[in-house]
Amino acid sequence: MxxxxxxxxxxEIGVFSKxxxxxxxxxxxxxxxFYSTFEAELADxxxxxxxxxAGTRIIGRLCAGNKNGLLLPHNTTDxxxxxxxxxxxxxxxxxxxxxxxxxxxxxxxxxxxxxLTHPDLDRExxxxxxxxLGVEVFRQTVAGNILxxxxxxxxxxxxxxxxxxxxxxxxxxxxxxxxPLVAGTVNRGSEVIAAxxxxxxxxxxxxxxxxxxxxxxxxxxxxxxxxxxxxxxxxMRKSLIDTYV
Amino acid sequence: xxxxxxxxxxxxxIGSVLCCKCGIxxxxxxxxxxxxxxxxxxxxxxxxxxxxxxxxxxECDTYLQPPRTWIKANLESKELLTFCVKKLKNLNTVRxxxxxFIWTEPHSKRIKVKLKVQKEVLNGAVLEQAFTVEYxxxxxxxxxxxxxxxxxxxxxxxxxxxxHVSHRRTFFYLxxxxxxxxxxxxxxxxxxMDQGIDFFFGKRSHxxxxxxxxxxxxxxxxxxxxxxxxxxxxxxxxxxxYTFSVEISPVCREDLICLPPKLVNSLGNLxxxxxxxxxxxxxxxxxxxxxxHCFLDADQYWRTSFKALLSSRQLVEYVVLDVEPVSSxxxxxxxxxxxxxxxxxxxxxxxxxxTIFNVRTHLGHILNPGDNALGYDLYSANSNDIELxxxxxxxxxxxxxxxxxxEERRQKKRGKARTWKLKSLNMEVDSTARGYNEEKISSEYxxxxxxxxxxxxxxxxxxxxxxxxYQPSEMASSVADxxxxxxxxxxxxxxxxxxxxxESNDDDSMAE
Lengths: 245, 512
Description:
A: alpha/beta; L-arginine/glycine Amidinotransferase, Chain A; B: elongated
């Protein structure tokens, strides 16, 4: 299910939140509305954590993570780091990395298996990503833009990319990522996909400017229609069990 | 995605996305909305005028451009389109791409213009939209038309041309000059009067220009006056009627003149009897016995104004019996003369008696024995001139020959049309006025045409037009004549025709 909401009257909610299969990070806002929407949807399933990164509210664009780990920029304070380590489940590795490009959310787009990164990322960072997040890393651009984390939103079931992506690019990315991809828009024709929406395997949140058409595209590409949290686990269990001993 | 710079570029086909509003498949654009949704969202013609009023004068078909200019334009013309587009305000916020008229019934008093404008919206998308502007046409007479309507004969300035002689030769010639130079194109009305012509103009400046023109082609003196018609005390506007009285000197070509003694002295004893050879803005005088000439311009003439002793109406025909050149050829003021002694007899005397005159004449270059010549008969003339009386002991010659006569040959050619013709001004002639003699005027006109044929320098300034009704076959039969009549050579007509082609727009043009 896709939910429409706003952060302090701004529809760019992907900037102020980060949603993965194991946890959800939310920025500290003036009113509790933003947080309570997330809580209403996710509280029984995954922890929803209020935090700031480097003293800012734009946490969605500064960090990158999936169910295996969370990467934070070098300017994250120690208290924030500690707070996150405490609040998140133990299976999630929280790591602060030293990278010149500190807006990791803009540079890295990932799901639980693959990650697309900014072509100019350091070697060490790339190794760190592969290590902490447990993913295969590909340096790519999306529709000619190097900030892949902004123009592409990924989950394990599908992905939405910048509307100007050509068909060849779509095919290539799709082959790399092994998920179906669609070029589309969010928030009434905005091309910055990841800023306008945040998504995991069973739910998505998008800005309130998103039109019904865009919403239907989201729901179809991320396969949210029949998704329930437990269904994921059941399905996964079936595919996970390889052989019966 | 690897892209080799320079040589090899990856082929990329643009995919399609769904319009974020209506969901139809479309090519992605800057707004990511299909054109229809974008248009429904944003109206770039907001704030632009959609209905305008324009004022039109039905008499002269012009449109008012405030505050005062009236622009002539036909319906659905380029000028009208420019005028309509200029009328719209705020059109500089958008870019105008195309404008055209939509047909409306002329009686509906509405003009519709379809405009296509472009403007940048949202994030870089340029939207093009077409919209119609409706112009309501209000009829209102422009100032000049209302003035004409109020009083069609209303003139502001009048020029009264007068010449106090008994013939109209000067006015025929002036008429042709005016036609050639288009000097009377601003005249509202032209009226023929006794001993002159009246010209009426709508503006004082036009009348002034006309008076200057006449002053350049004839020796004139003029005076002008004005009469108050109305005056507005609030704006201090005074409306006058201006009148210019222009008098042309009564001396004409081929006149015999007796100069007053004072003038004779100041001109260096130029014999008191002189012939006038040419009148432009100065008078050329020729002493036929000494072959001396002089020029008097308008000022000099009017200071010592003199009248003609005898004019061309009083020319008598003579038969030349013998010619003896006395001096060699002299060029005087552009024409050649030879002083000669001639024996002449009047044609009326020719068979009847033996009255022969021995005279000195300046026409030795064209006269041969047996020719006919025209001259002034001073022997039998009874002249009442004051000036002549002042000369004591002056022996007046008997005959002064003026020009060669082609009367015989003209008799043969009578009734045949000329190869050329002249145009005429649009004059109002009052035919019921006292003293109006139609026969006299037509014979004078015929004489004027003959003068034109005989004198190349007289037709230098005029435009002659080819006569379409002229039949060349008739001319062939009379080519066998011995001596030809002086006629205007065809190439002169052609040369004139070049000008007339440029000036006139009628069917007188011939293939060149």
